[in-house]
């Protein structure tokens, strides 16, 4: 078969962006050296932006989003035919047709053999969100933040990165306080192992420096929430930053940095070196793998995906959405 199905976002005559499931030809994919038959993908916030015409993410349309893909090798100079592999990050789904299509063609240097201990579906429960969470946890560890150091704040805890950061930290033994604007999800977050759950608007603000509470913070939303987290981090603590759902900008004083020695660390999953990728995926599939991984996602088809995208853009989604290209039983 030389044709396949894909969700395609394109600009209509009135300037609005629409999405349709279309037949594409494998020969129209970019001329990279590795062709993968995609079995699963996942929905990330970056995908939702790309699917709605955000040119800061995707420069040219029509386009197939999907920054994650898990499937089988069809053609490759580096991997045998039928090898189960994953691709997450790089330029997949941003400016190269992504995992919302049944086939992708990428450079072999982007491809990682499926980690032992994870199925292809489980790999996409993690996806870029889980990998980003893993990078964030690894950064806290590298900064000397240990389970005995004190409470860890995770903001945006019902989102993909936040929820996965929560369960990874709990698995390792940290005491996690989850912050969310969705009060209806508090019971769920407690069931996922959160030591405490606090409303997003309860984080203190106003003063340039607040009472130090957090030994570390994994912030997934940015904006004023990140500012307040910085102000209330303990001496020598570490804060990671990977999201901008609240805002891509923030304004704060230098007091948390020069009076408490706090470190603010940006997390980039897209261009991460392959050696570090392998290290993080090994932990995600091994000693960090949570017992409740199956509870963190819902499966959907291409036909369901448009509604899932709208739900994510409107802030109504919780947890992970895994996209299945396999025929239903």
Task: Report on the architecture of this protein.
The chain is α/β, with parallel strands linked by helices and 329 residues long. The chain folds into 2 domains: 143 residues, Quinone Oxidoreductase, Chain A, domain 1; 139 residues, Rossmann fold (3-Layer(aba) Sandwich). It has 8 helices and 15 strands. The strands form 3 sheets. Strands 3, 4, 5, 6, 7, 14 and 15 form a 7-stranded mixed β-sheet that branches. Strands 10-9-8-11-12-13 form a 6-stranded parallel β-sheet, sandwiched between helices. Helix 8 links the parallel strand 14 and strand 15. The protein is globular. The two termini are 22 Å apart. The mean pLDDT is 93.
Give a short overview.
Helices cover 26% and strands 26% of the residues.
Provide tags for this entry:
329 residues; alpha/beta; Quinone Oxidoreductase, Chain A, domain 1; Rossmann fold; 2 domains; seven-stranded mixed beta sheet; 8 helices; 15 strands
């Amino acid at each position: 078969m030389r044709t396949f199905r894909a969700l395609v976002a394109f600009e209509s005559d009135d300037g609005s962006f629409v999405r349709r499931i279309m037949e594409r030809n494998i020969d129209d994919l970019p001329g990279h050296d590795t062709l993968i038959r995609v079995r699963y993908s996942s929905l990330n916030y970056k995908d939702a932006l790309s699917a709605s015409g955000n040119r800061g993410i995707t420069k040219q349309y029509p386009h197939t989003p999907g920054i994650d893909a898990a499937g089988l090798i069809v053609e490759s100079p580096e991997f045998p035919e039928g090898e189960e592999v994953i691709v997450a990050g790089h330029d997949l789904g941003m400016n190269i047709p992504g995992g919302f299509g049944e086939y992708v063609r990428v450079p072999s240097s982007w491809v990682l053999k499926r980690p032992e201990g994870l199925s292809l579906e489980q790999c996409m429960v993690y996806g870029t969100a889980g990998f980003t969470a893993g990078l964030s946890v690894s950064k806290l560890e590298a900064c000397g933040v240990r389970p005995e150091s004190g409470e860890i704040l995770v903001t945006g805890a019902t989102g993909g990165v936040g929820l996965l950061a929560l369960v990874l930290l709990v698995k390792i033994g940290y005491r996690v306080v989850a912050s969310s604007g969705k009060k209806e999800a508090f019971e769920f977050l407690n069931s996922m192992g959160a030591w405490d759950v606090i409303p997003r608007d309860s984080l203190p603000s106003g003063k340039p420096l607040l009472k130090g509470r957090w030994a570390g913070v994994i912030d997934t939303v940015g904006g004023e929430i990140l500012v307040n987290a910085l102000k209330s981090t303990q001496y020598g603590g570490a804060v990671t930053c990977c999201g901008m759902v609240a805002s891509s900008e923030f304004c704060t004083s230098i007091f948390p940095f020069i009076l408490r020695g706090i470190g603010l660390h940006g997390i980039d999953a897209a261009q991460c070196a392959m050696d570090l990728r392998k290290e993080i995926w090994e932990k995600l599939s091994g000693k960090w793998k949570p017992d409740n991984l199956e509870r963190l996602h819902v499966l959907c088809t291409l036909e369901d995906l448009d509604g899932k995208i709208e739900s994510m853009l409107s802030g109504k989604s919780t947890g992970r959405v895994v996209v299945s290209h396999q025929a239903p039983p």
